[in-house]
Amino acid sequence: MKRLAFVLVLLAAAGGAFAILHMTKPAPYARLIYPLRYQEIVQGHARNYRLDPALLAAVIYQESRFRRRAESESGALGLMQLLPTTAAGIAVRTGGTRFRVEDLYDPEINVRYGSWYLRHLLDKYDGSERKALAAYNAGQTTVDRWLAEGGEIRFSETRRYVDEVLENRRIYARAYPQALG
Known about the structure:
The chain is mainly alpha-helical. It is 68% helix and 0% strand. The protein contains 10 helices and no strands. The termini are far apart.
């Protein structure tokens, strides 16, 4: 009986320690849970498109968990989960002449297009990260309609997405200060 009580106390203590780690997310723990892959690509495109590199990493994490071949049910592809139609439009606007859907699996191209798009949304919504992220998730037309109807994000999924990306940004900035600073 004493052994069982001891094991239960030990398990409770371990669970409490894990909960504290999960809530506070110190840098070493955060680096285990929140990977940073394609660091040079993220840094380069963040610099080129005047984005916070931690925000860019947070969007990539939220969209694909840094899986370059990620695919969504809606047909979005790659690290930043771009729809082929959106990417084709970005390719034209950025001087591309021969866009192919397979290009979206190339981390360099996907992050370049996604960075351009995120910058476009930030500019469109006067620097509002919440609005830009909502448009990244739900589409510009949807966000424009919400703004015209009173300005609130109407989809709970989109509100959650925006909140999670912004929290992930804080985690990435703390976990990778040299790489994303």
